[in-house]
Amino acid sequence: MRNEYIAHLIHRLSVYRPYSTEWWDAEQGLEHSGDLAVPELIKLLDPKNPGFILRAAAISLEAIGSPARKAAPALVSLMTYPDSMVRNDVQRALLKINAKLAFALPAILERLQQENLPGLRRELLRLLEKIGPLASEARRYLIPALTDPYTFEDAIIALRSVNPDTSALIPLLLKSLDHSESSMRHAAARALGKMRVQEPSVIDALQKASLGYDPGLRHEARQALAKILKVKKRSKRDLRKG
Question: When comparing pLDDT for 27 and 134, which is higher?
């Protein structure tokens, strides 16, 4: 009975007007069917299908989450699909299903070089973050993203993930504390706080930023200093105990 129900929902996706109430009801039904629906949803990820079918399958797989890991190869194959809305839903699904994506690195790097839409570039950077050190070759592809205020923070996070030795990032982050774009200033302060860098030059720069004209930067710099100084105090206590 369950298989018949899933087949019925798949059929409804193809016969009802895309994004109508009936169509969304079918899509929601597939979401709630969980891993039982995954094999049929994978079949829908055929690039010959209309974009609205591909989107419905990707959205459903995203909602199902981790049990949909087997769909990763089919989703990756659609990363070059012409319709940006399909690419968006495909990449969001890949982020949510928590599949091992090292196999997809060539496709992700190719898309990163070709993708012009900032939102989709950010998703690609987050996919690289998920891959981690296995994506170390991605470092040179991430450099252009560091110059774009919209992708700057995601690029920093991806770089920290693919290359745990992030000491080379510190000069860039310190310089970015004075960037003309407020989003880059704020992101740089957040990154320094997350890295817990205890170098005097970093602490001095954050203390200066915490007293500056930008209220958002003042807040982020103070948050970063709190994290760094907390680690510093803990290290001193450990030394005394030793």
Answer: 134
Question: What is the spatial distance between Cα 206 and Cα 65, in angstroms, rounded to a whole number?
Answer: 39
If one counts every other C-beta atom within 10 angstroms of the C-beta of residue 226, the result is: 12
Long-range contacts of 99-104 (CB under 8 A, 24+ apart): 99/69, 99/71, 99/72, 100/69, 100/72, 101/72, 101/76, 101/127, 101/130, 101/131, 102/131, 102/134, 102/135, 103/73, 103/76, 104/72, 104/76, 104/79, 104/131
Q: Which of 194, 176, 193, 195 minimizes the C-alpha distance to 185?
A: 176
As a whole number, mean pLDDT of residues 199-205 equals 93
How many CB atoms are closer than 10 A to CB 239? 8
Rg of the Cα atoms in the chain = 22
pTM of the predicted model, to two decimals? 0.85
Average pLDDT, the chain: 90
For the segment 128-143, what is each residue's pLDDT rounded down to a tens digit? 999 999 999 999 899 8
| Cα–Cα distance, 242 to 240 (Å, whole number) | 5
* pLDDT greater than 80 at residue 200: yes
C-alpha to C-alpha distance for 229 and 19, rounded to whole angstroms: 52
* Contacting residues for 20 by C-beta, under 8 A, at least 6 apart: none
